[in-house]
Design brief:
The complex is a heterodimer of chains A (222) and B (164). Chain A is mainly alpha-helical and 222 residues long. Helix content of chain A is 72%, strand content 0%. In chain A, helix 6 crosses helix 7. In chain B, 68% of the residues lie in helices and 0% in strands. Classes of the chains: A mainly alpha (222), B mainly alpha (164).
């Protein structure tokens, strides 16, 4: 009696099919080059912010606390951008301790905003009227850098798309926060937390969801 | 791998054949079942194909391949868990006709029945129900590439069984 067991699955059919599908590909840019491009974007966004600075920028620039805040934000932007760009390549995906470091820095940054900011009392109407423009400006500063990073990551093969989305949008929004610290004259704690920090936090969470939906599509390609 | 990125088919064949044992070794810690291991191996090759532009020749190939294998394994296990959650057990097995009205099953039905479940489902959805690859992939919660491979393997198995 003939053996009715189907032949064991082999890799041959898959290999033949893949070779038939093979096309030359353009390699992802080296991490150093991609990071340099990100720094150029950062400088561009900051140049726009500096072109319309807060009136007391010259005075504030001489204060160590303010300078340290700007430098810390700039370093955080570079770090988050680097993590986002790294996550485009499967073997460079940021490790859990790097996620923890980024989260810890975010908490420290929010705490720093809360402690360094001054408190002024304004009516709720005035608070909203002066604040909502800052949220829009934050989003305007963020839109280009976030788009640049998302497209750069999407060109790769992020194996943790939600994490990639978090880092990419987080980097762009922290850059926007930095630009707003140069642009907006207010140092009021409530203003900074509600109109500057909250958009960064909410936008980053949206980026997490967006990343999960969009950045993982490479693994569904035929 | 650099030649593969440039589109060299011979280099690609040599690479894909060379890395089979490596991929199996990497995946064995997640898949004990031989069929699942074979499926995961093929999925890893598809993942490698889609992500081949992300390989950096200045970095170790094994680490890159390992990351892809881990990603593929995690993805397959996640889908399996989702499928298991959706399956509903029944207390009483419903009555089914033992023999079709026209007599015993045909050679073709026997060949289809002997296929592994994943291949049979793929074959039936595409060749019998007439679904597109995209629709069938969505229905079976897999990728279009993987579904094409399953359907192709099913077709070859049926052809081989009918030729005997």
């Amino acid at each position: 009696m003939a053996d009715r067991t189907p032949p064991r699955p082999t890799y041959d059919a898959t290999i033949d099919w893949l070779i038939g599908e093979l096309q030359p590909v353009r390699r992802l840019p080296a991490l150093g080059a991609a990071l340099s491009a990100w720094v150029v974007v950062m400088v561009g966004v900051l140049a726009v912010a500096v072109s319309a600075p807060r009136p007391d920028l010259a005075t504030r620039a001489g204060q160590l606390g303010y300078l340290a805040e700007l430098v810390g934000l700039a370093a955080g932007t570079v770090l988050l951008g680097a993590l986002a760009l790294r996550s485009a390549a499967p073997d460079r995906t940021p490790r859990p301790w790097e996620h923890a470091l980024a989260a810890m820095l975010a908490v420290l940054a929010i705490a720093a905003v809360a402690t360094h900011a001054t408190a002024t009392s304004v009516s709720l109407v005035e608070f909203v009227a002066s604040g909502k423009g800052c949220t829009w400006a934050t989003l305007e500063f963020a839109i280009l850098p976030v788009a640049v990073l998302l497209v750069a990551v999407q060109r790769g093969a992020p194996v943790r798309p939600r994490v990639s989305g978090t880092f990419a949008t987080g980097a762009g929004l922290v850059l926007a926060y930095l630009a707003m610290r140069v642009h907006c004259p207010s140092d009021d704690g409530a203003h900074l937390l509600v109109w500057h920090t909250l958009p960064v936090v909410i936008g980053t969470l949206v980026g997490t969801g967006l990343g999960g939906r969009w950045l993982g599509r490479w693994s569904q390609r035929p | 791998m650099e030649r593969v990125q440039a589109g060299d088919g011979d280099a690609y064949r040599a690479l894909l054949e060379d890395i089979q044992p490596l991929i199996r070794g990497m995946l064995r810690r997640w898949f004990a079942d031989a069929d699942e291991l074979a499926d995961a191996g093929q999925e890893t090759l598809l993942t490698l194909h889609r992500a081949r532009h992300t390989y950096d020749p200045t970095r170790p190939f094994e680490r890159w391949l390992g990351a892809l294998a881990r990603h593929t394994a995690a993805d397959l296990l996640r889908r399996k868990m989702r499928r298991l959650r959706l399956e509903v057990g029944v207390d009483v097995v419903p009555d089914l006709p033992i023999e079709p009205a026209t007599g015993g099953p045909s050679e073709l039905e026997r060949a289809i029945g002997a296929l592994p479940t994943a291949q049979r489902d793929a074959f039936e959805m595409v060749k019998v129900d007439g679904l597109s690859f995209e629709e069938a992939a969505a229905r079976s919660d897999t990728t279009v590439g993987a579904l094409k491979v399953r359907a192709h393997r099913a077709y070859k198995s049926i052809k081989a069984a009918l030729a005997r």
